[in-house]
Design brief:
single chain, 82 residues, mainly alpha
Length: 82
């Protein structure tokens, strides 16, 4: 799929500079930048959700208790190979 997106002249110059310095296409640099931004955005949303969860003491305690249950599986005697 191909789509046209307008970007500022400043962003275009930066994109071209990075592409030239890394020997990548401008499209590849832009794809990587968008993916990095997406990952950062997901982490920020996750942090916001955990902060909201922490405000509810009862629900936060449920989360902590569930983590303890999962941590117990680490000592199940199974090796890393299965």
């Amino acid at each position: 799929m191909s789509a046209n997106v307008r970007i500022s002249q400043r962003s275009w110059k930066i994109l071209k500079e990075i592409a030239g310095s890394t020997n990548e296409t401008m499209q590849n640099v832009l794809d990587r930048a968008v993916e990095m931004y997406r990952r950062q955005w997901i982490l920020e949303k996750t942090n916001e959700a955990y902060a909201a969860l922490k405000k509810d003491k009862e629900k936060w305690q449920e989360e902590v208790d569930e983590r303890k249950e999962w941590n117990a599986t680490l000592g199940d005697g199974l090796g890393d190979d299965g």
